Amino acid sequence: MASKTAMVSQLERKDKNMRRAVLTMTVLAWVALITGVVLCLINLNDFNDRNLGLMVGIGFLVGSVFIYVIAKAIGLVHTRSEDEGAD
């Protein structure tokens, strides 16, 4: 009985850590998105490929999408593996 309790406790801790990681990545994605929008708006006056601020802003916009998608994929895979383990 004690070993079963320990296993449930470990699973709950892993679940909590995974949710925290997904939430952290989601927050970082939103921060990157906001940073990208601000950089793009500030540097929009000189619209060409030599405008470093604009290019960095676009990079933040693209990177935020990748971070968000990866975070959601990790969360979905973790949820799915939990559902399969319960069966």
- Which residues sit in consecutive blocks of at least 5 with pLDDT less than 50? none
Task: Characterize the main sheet.
Answer: none
Which structural class matches the secondary elements?
Answer: mainly alpha
Q: Please, how many helices?
A: 2
Which overall shape is indicated by the principal axes computed on the Cα atoms? elongated
What's the overall average pLDDT, rounded?
Answer: 87
Textual characterization of the structure:
The chain crosses the membrane at residues 21-44, 50-71. Keywords: Membrane, Transmembrane, Transmembrane helix. With 87 residues, the protein is mainly alpha-helical. It has one domain (20-84). It has two helices and no strands. The longest helix has 41 residues, at 2-42. The relative contact order is 0.14.
